[in-house]
Amino acid sequence: APAGALPPHLARLKNEGNHLFRHGQFGDAMERYSRAIEGFPGAAGIDSPEDLCILYSNRAACHLKEGSSADCIQDCTKALELQPYSLKALLRRAMAYESLERYRKAYVDYKTVLQIDGGVQAAHDSVHRITKMLMEQDGPGWREKLPEIPTVPLAVQQQHRQKPLSAEEAEARAARAAAGRRWPTPFISRRKEARCTLLKAEGNDLVRRGCFQEALQKYGQCLTLKPQECALYTNRAVCFLKLNRFEEAKQECDRALRLEPNNRKAFYRRALAHKGLQDYLSASSDLQEVLQLDPNVREAEQELETVTGLL
């Protein structure tokens, strides 16, 4: 089937996912994309790798918003196996690599993006920033330590330049115009995204090193740029839990749940905060919510047994 000719039930799931994503409901959007992906192999007459690539790339965007960089990389890689020069999949994987401080791999993906479309400012900014980091890390021979940068065929570059707006992009533009909003200046928007990615990566690194107070500051700076980013609140909750500041951890989870009412991490971390505050009934309630959303979360099962014994 040609791209865009999905069977109605899969097209509906994809469209629902797109709508939820645009409204910041990343967990719910991810669930719709997952169902569409699962329905793909058994759907008669579907042989378009492009459609499946888009679904994986869209789910990767949800993982990126949720702060699940490893899952984002996995989905982008699947998308790129289907469409080796998918610009969005390359860009999202690059951002995920950068957030995990895998700078060499991020550099390669950003450079590949720029071969396809030299106008992606976020990729230019990131290459500039990562180059400085790699020079500091690896010295003058930093380029020799890079993985091989693939050469994008000229035909792919030309095809991208001639590619018309997708239905989704056209719909998004129409929606913005109808709402009377102007497009943000792409340069400013992408700089903000890149700055937030860097701050978040620095925060994640500080958490790994046990520097929770400093990590809080990084996540806080990121929130001034992206106050609707749910993962930042759940990350701050981890820091407060580690610092035994349980009331503040609970408040961060409350904020996350106002943005995403079904956020599993927020429920789990709020349960730990309730436990720290010796509110075992509320802890039990939140852990049950976690298990209702995902029955396979072993840590939640173990914590539920513990707090049930304390009731």
Automatic annotation (TrEMBL):
Spell out the subcellular localization from the entry: Cytoplasm
Major place of localization?
cytoplasm
* This protein's UniProt keywords: Cytoplasm, Repeat, TPR repeat
Q: What are its GO cellular component terms?
A: cytosol
What is one Gene Ontology biological process annotated in the Swiss-Prot or TrEMBL record? axonemal dynein complex assembly
Question: InterPro entries recorded for this chain?
Answer: CiliaryAsmbly_MitoImport (IPR051982), TPR-like_helical_dom_sf (IPR011990), TPR_rpt (IPR019734)
Q: Where are the TPR repeats?
A: 230-263
Q: Which Gene3D superfamilies match?
A: Tetratricopeptide repeat domain (1.25.40.10)
Its name, as the record gives it, is Sperm associated antigen 1a
Q: Which domain of life is it from?
A: Eukaryota
